[in-house]
Specification:
38% helix, 25 helices, disordered N terminus, alpha+beta
Length: 922
Amino acid sequence: MYLSNGWSWCQHRVWKQMLRGLSTRVNPASKEIRKMFLDFFMERHGHEYVHSSSVIPPKGQGTYFTNAGMNQFKPLFLGTADAMSEMSRYRRVVNSQKCIRVGGKHNNLDDVGKDFTHHTFFEMLGNWSFADYFKTEACAMALQLLTQVYHLHTDRLYVTYFGGNSLLSLPPDEECRQVWLSLGIPPERVLPFGMKDNFWDMGNTGPCGPCSEIHYDHIGNRNAASLVNTGSPDVVEIWNLVFMQFDRLADQTLKSLPRQHVDTGMGLERLCAVIQGTRSNYDTDLFSPLFDHIRQAGTAPGYHGNVGAADEKGIDSAYRIVADHARMFTVTIADGLLPGNEDLEHKLRHILHRCIHQALCILHLPHGFLSGLVDVVVDSLGEAYPEISKDVPKIKDVVNMTEDRYLSNLTQARKTLEKFLSSQKTGTDRLICGEEALGLYEGRYGPPISLEILTTLAEEKGLSVDMTTIELKLKEDRETSYRASNMSQSASSFHLDHHALQRLQEMGVPETEDSGKYDYKRMGDSYDFTTIRACVCALVHDGTFVDCVQSGEQCWVILDRTSFYAESGGQVSDQGEIITQTGRLLVTDVQKVKGYVLHIATVTSGQVQVGESSLCKLDQARREGCMRNHTATHLLNFALRETLGHDGIRQQGSLVTPQRLTFDFSYLGSIDSQQLTEIEVCVKKLIAERREVTKAEMTLAAAQSLPNLVKLENELYPSNVRVVAVGTIPGEVSGRAENSSVELCAGTHVDNTADLTEFCVIRLTSVSLGTKRMTAVTGRDAVQAVQTSHELEDVYKQLEECVLNGRNMEKWVQWEKQLNKGLSEELVQKTKRDELLDKLRRLGDKMSHQMNKDEKSRRIEDFVSLVDEHKDSPFLISDVTMEITIKQMMKTLHSSASYRKPTFLVVRSKNGENSELLVKHT
């Protein structure tokens, strides 16, 4: 059996044993190696310890995991750190950062298992200087640590420096070279390399600079300079010292930074391999406990460290994959990420699925085994990262639930694929083509198969999958999913998977009766909402069913009945309180899953227990706002069709909140101010007519037979639906109101259009080609928007009077500023905003014209005075800058009584390209 570098496994073992036999010193464990690094910089060189940041980046800071130690310090490198923040005072910092490289520029996933050095999760040891020390100190500290603390032999170390780049006019980093020479490194082991190896960039633009790498020769007693940076497993890079001294501009030119920084990074796994005398990171104590646990639990042979062809059945590769992925998913889940369908959640799910498959199908480990590896990982990493140890049961639950779901899907997928292959040529072609793969993915040949499972099963059978078609389909889906991403305002990603649903059924928890959300009556100018008494049937805290939740804890509450509206149909959920005998809950979100209504809430006082009786108390102002705006959405939909034509309008999505409504619709034409006014007038007319809003439940078939019914395209409706009509529902009674809106809708609505009081469109934008978004307000906000619009119109009239009458000109700037500020406010009528902006622009042009005219008249008067003043002079030469024609100039000169001299005029034409000459004699 041979390793990827040509070494046999026996040679590798013998070499390793000989190396260890030469030393009487006991190799330190990974925990000690990590601690030695931190202590060296903190105790000997005054560095401040900063704990590792989460592997999950802050919201809005990218879709990839934290992949380097410097990530959390980017604000310091970029100069954007808040001057009042803790970070702004950092000068010397050291830490060990949790890193994950799955996706993006740095993606180790495909290499994990195939060699001895790649990992999805690893630890980056690093020390930083923020405008404190620079190259001399950084190199000296690094060499001191490696040789005096870790006791690595100096003659096994090779260092590299930046060799320069003529295209960028960057000379070799001679300063760095001289530092290493002064520290005693022989010239033949101080090696120059180019941009690829020895120049580091944070991105396409921003801080960058040369770097110096430290390489270690596993063999020793030779000159291994020719093996540096060649990928040889014998000579490996262990530390990179980056000297940030340039700023890369948008045009790719470099300029020196006013403050220079040091950023170093050394992978703990590789360092442990070097110190513990092995060329494989997986032969260190970071992985050996995981391997031992795997070997003891399964029936597979022990780990022998084979790669490539030597690893005939993929056993050793599976060992490495399972151990590596166990570290990754333990750390990631501990930092708060859960497996999901998109972005980082999907990457985590993919890692888990890959790990589960290797564990069960290759290593033949028992079901539920993977969650046991969490304890081994915590024992290895928990001391350095206490956050990993805080909720081990939750991590295990997530792993077990993911495994259960995966196995269920895998079993079904295997049947589907077997059936598909038996009827296709794919078995002989050894390729599942793009269209076939898409069909399996979409479920054309049976239950849909996820990409992870499809590629896994194909690999099992020695098949390859053409992913091009699927990737194009996924890209198209992402581009057309804006309704979900832009219109939905779900405050959480709470969900119940099928295991949780099964558990609820086993517990005898009935589906939630939520018809109480429609139980309200109009009482004068407001509504009376019936108080619902319900039983607390189940509580979920941190993903686990519990019997009781305490004050301050967030949970999901499932009641047997509720009056809370769960988010759906574009309408946000209700909020309010659930009050029990022993405590109170503040409900901030409500979701409905498979018949169960989840009240996402926080216990604000006391405690809440399963089995208690409770009262549902809605936030009435929030609910009434949603009711008004949802009814207004229907009126707007109707008005758009009436104004712009029924055939040209198709609803694309909507968002209903207590404050406003947003309506997306397809319309290829443009909507001018006149049409927008007509749309508003149509809605206001329906409000003024005090139309009754009728709701009725019926079968889908009956609803679809109603004339002028409006429903969403491609929407999957239940067999029984709710119809909402402005006026009477067609067919229920004779003499239905004309021009009434009739829609399928499960939202909450007012009983009469008069409750809207007022309606005002405040924004109209284009979302994409052929899709527009209209935002409107009702009630008090609409009244304010209309009133503000009138007030701004009065301000404009004052401005206009200034210009037309030439009075109060000193107030022009003040009133213009007031008008512009008012027009930038949210609650302003869209049509009035556009009208006033256009008028203001034209008035500004007129004002500029008038000011130019006045200035021209003043200059002419000044010139005439100049001529009169020099009437006795033999000649007068003057340069007059003004927009004036030759004819006008001559007329101006004639207006002077003293004008009696020959005149030579040079007049520049308006385009500035030619000049006209005129000689005039009196």
